[in-house]
Amino acid sequence: MNFIETIKDRAKKDKKTIVLPETMDRRVLEAASKVLQEGIAHVILIGNSKKILEEYADLSLGEATFIDPLESDLTEELIQKLVELRREKGMTYEEAKRLLLEDYMYFACMLVKTGRADGVVSGACHSTSNTLRPALQIIKTKPGVLLVSAFFLMVVPDCEYGEHGIFVFADAGLEQNPTPDKLAAIAASSADSFQFLVQKEPIVAMLSHSTVGSAKHADVDKVVEGVRIAKESYPEYQIDGEFQLDAAIVPEVAKSKAPDSKIAGHANVLVFPDLDAGNIGYKLVQRLAKAEAYGPITQGIAAPVNDLSRGCSSDDIVGVVAITAVQAQK
């Protein structure tokens, strides 16, 4: 059984309710149909049920729960709750009403906040900021978490590296240029995510264009300091660096470039120095190695709210829904 099928099986054992707000996108509705048919999760679709069911009569959406903000009895309650939540930020009744009626992501996050759903998946036709801004405003971060970050769960076919081709790439979706303390927090959150989702021991490499001092630059210094903080603050995880990519995952290269590291050559969690590197890296692996790329998966939000690449397929969305449902079990 491959990785995503294992995730689906875990989701089925304790079914959660996931909101899919982007009902204007056929890929999302195709994914909803597959999720329902496979019994992965309960699904809430935001939109007019009559219009959606007529337009997409070829899809099996009968078991979905439809909520139309324009007609729902919940809308007034959620408006009042949003005003209460954001009153200190100047939220008015009129603004809350506009957001909930015009931006379905706000409505979806309010369903989670009020306990009517367990998670949200969006981003097929909206930007990351459109997806995550409402989540951060409404659901907020977990207590004690330094920052919200994002990772891609990569499944590389016929790959001997990582956990039989399974990796976490972080941060590849959210944090633009993390400071050393943020890099350390990303490393710890990513290790925790790998351990929970893959159910294997995380081995974390913090990446650079330098391996153990082979290059001198302020960008390298940032990663070196991040490694120091991570080792000191999160001793429960195996974290090391700074490593070039080949030294991080290829044992033969690690022996020559970082012979004193037990982690070099064996990493399955890759922490990139900035968002440019992470985003480019995951897309290279996805396209050239024909890898499955699930994400961006967020970590650090009080309930799972996950983003999608706008180039995603319906099967990619199904995978992210399954991951979101498993995260909600935690």
Describe the structure.
The protein has helices at 3-13, 26-38, 49-55, 74-86, 93-102, 104-113, 128-138, 180-198, 218-233, 245-249, 251-257, 275-288, 314-329; strands at residues 17-20, 42-46, 65-67, 119-121, 149-155, 166-170, 203-207, 238-243, 269-271, 292-299, 305-306. By secondary structure, it is of the alpha/beta class. It has two domains: 3-140 and 302-329, Rossmann fold, CATH 3.40.50.10950; 149-288, 3-Layer(aba) Sandwich (Rossmann fold). The strands form two sheets. Strands 8-7-9-6-5-10 form a six-stranded mixed sheet, sandwiched between helices. Strands 3-2-1-4-11 form a five-stranded parallel sheet, sandwiched between helices. Strand 1 (17-20), helix 2 (26-38) and strand 2 (42-46) form a beta-alpha-beta unit. Helix 4 (74-86) packs across helix 5, helix 5 crosses helix 6 (104-113) and helix 6 runs parallel beside helix 7 (128-138). The two termini are 22 Å apart.
